[in-house]
Amino acid sequence: MPIHSTTSDAGELREVWSSAARRASDAKLVACVAVAIVAALAFGVGLLISVRRTFPWWPLVLPALFAGTFGVWGIADREMSDTTRRSSHRALAVAKLCSAVAAGVVAALAAMGILKLTIGTWIS
């Protein structure tokens, strides 16, 4: 029996993302951001030391960056529900938008990495 939904797919994804962020504790959201910062810094230092050795490992940084975007989005969402000032509400909305765009970029990079591993071996 098919499942009928009253919302669109984009709405469903937004709801899943929102409910997961609301269920996560503040410590988990901060840990997501901290892990992303540490992973990005470690990758950056690795690139400064040796680009040839470090660059092939870029797909391993993507999950940490995705978790970081989730953490930033969750923190901004939580703060938006708590604040009443309009100026901070706008800044938090911009932070949510930037983290959503960054999550999309990370997802696109992950898709390209997966395609490179799968289809790239068939083509060559």
What is the gist of this entry?
This protein is an all-alpha fold. It has helices at 9-23, 26-49, 51-54, 62-82, 86-123.
Account of the 3D structure:
The protein is mainly α. It has one domain. 82% of the residues lie in helices and 0% in strands. The chain contains 5 helices and no strands. The longest helix is centred in the last third of the chain and has 38 residues, at 86-123. The radius of gyration is 18 Å and the shape is globular. It starts with 8 loop residues before the first helix and ends with a helix.
Write the layout of secondary structure elements.
Layout: H1 9-23, H2 26-49, H3 51-54, H4 62-82, H5 86-123
Helix pairs in contact: 1-4, 2-4, 4-5
Q: Indicate how many domains the architecture comprises.
A: 1
Q: Please state the overall shape, judged from the principal axes of the Cα atoms.
A: globular
Query: Beta-strand level of the residues, as a percent range?
Result: under 5%
Main pleated sheet: none
- The DSSP helix count reads 5
**Cα-to-Cα separation, first versus last residue:** 43 Å
Mean pLDDT: 86
- Judged by helices, strands and strand pairing, the structural class is mainly alpha
Number of strands: 0
From N to C, what is the helix and strand string?
Answer: HHHHH
Helix content: over 70%
Instruction: State Rg.
Output: 18 Å
What keyword list fits this structure?
124 residues; mainly alpha; globular
